[in-house]
Design goal:
- The chain has one helix at residues 81-91, and strands at residues 2-4, 8-9, 14-18, 25-27, 31-42, 57-68, 100-105, 111-126, 129-138, 143-144, 152-155, 160-164, 168-176, 185-189, 195-201, 204-209, 213-221, 227-235.
- It folds into two domains: 2-144, Factor Xa Inhibitor; 152-235, Immunoglobulin-like (Sandwich), CATH 2.60.40.1080.
- The strands form three sheets. Strands 1, 2, 3, 4, 5, 6, 7, 8, 9 and 10 form a ten-stranded antiparallel sheet that branches. It has a four-stranded antiparallel sheet with strand order 11-13-16-15, with no helix packed on it. A four-stranded mixed sheet has the order 12-18-17-14, with no helix packed on it.
- By secondary structure, the chain is mainly beta.
- The chain is 5% helix and 53% strand.
- A hairpin with a 5-residue loop joins strand 7 (100-105) and strand 8 (111-126).
- The chain is globular.
């Protein structure tokens, strides 16, 4: 048998769980660490540490854990949707009807899919705050997903946006193709005294008007430097 995998930080990783009802891939927020153990059994009688063992692997068993801090909506008190799906999966007690799918992507969008059962949720607290951990067991071997290159980045409302001072407007960064592997982007606003980024949630941006005037928001894809520009016009407060 061969065991591999050590805990690693997931600050630059995207980790999602597939909603079995809607098929949507839901981000799990608040995570700080992940560990994955892969045990491989070889079919030639050699130990898993043998130089040639990889050629004779006949089965793999995967187990792992995710940990981080609990995330709740400040307004409603509702739990983060991704964390809530993990919690529901853990409380369902496993079994064939409770198979889950985790999608883990690194900073450049290379992704691996784990079909698994979430077996346990553990919560604890200390002087540094609350911590939550989920353990999972793999169903079959991990699958490396094909990399889909991004070809275009744009805004859902075109190249211009109007908002009044003191108010906010929502806009979405759109990617072509929609299933591009790397949808990370940076942003900049030419004059934050006119308009500022009020909030960001994945591709969803909330723009706040500060004072009358005009400025420009620019977003740039992280892997191939594609850009999109948005002219923001801020009108007088109502």
């Amino acid at each position: 048998m061969r065991k591999s995998g050590c805990p690693f930080t997931v600050r630059d990783y995207s980790i999602k769980i597939k909603d079995n009802v809607t098929d949507a891939e839901v981000p799990i927020k608040g995570l700080s660490e992940m560990s994955v153990d892969v045990e491989a059994e070889t079919g030639d009688g050699k130990g898993g540490d043998s130089v040639w063992a990889e050629m004779f692997i006949k089965s793999r068993a995967v187990s792992g854990a995710l940990s981080g801090r609990p995330i709740y909506d400040r307004t409603t008190g509702a739990r983060d949707p991704g964390q809530n799906l993990m919690r529901r999966a853990a409380l369902n007690g496993g079994g064939c009807e409770n198979d889950q799918t985790l999608i883990v992507a690194d900073a450049v969008g290379r992704a691996v899919r784990y079909d698994c059962v979430v077996t346990k949720e553990t919560a604890s607290a200390d002087e540094d705050g609350e911590t939550i951990e989920w353990e999972f067991e793999g169903v079959g071997a991990p699958e490396e997903l094909a990399y889909v290159q991004l070809s275009n980045i744009a805004f859902d409302k075109g190249a211009s946006l109007s908002v009044r001072a003191g108010e906010t407007a929502e806009i979405v960064v759109k990617f072509t193709p929609e299933d591009a592997s790397n949808r990370r982007f940076s942003y900049s606003i030419a004059d934050e005294g006119v308009a500022a980024l009020n909030a960001i949630d994945g591709p969803n941006l909330s723009i706040r008007g500060v004072r009358e005037g005009q400025t420009k928001l620019t977003v740039k894809s992280m892997n191939n430097n594609l850009t999109a520009a948005l002219t923001i016009t801020v009108g007088a407060a109502s």
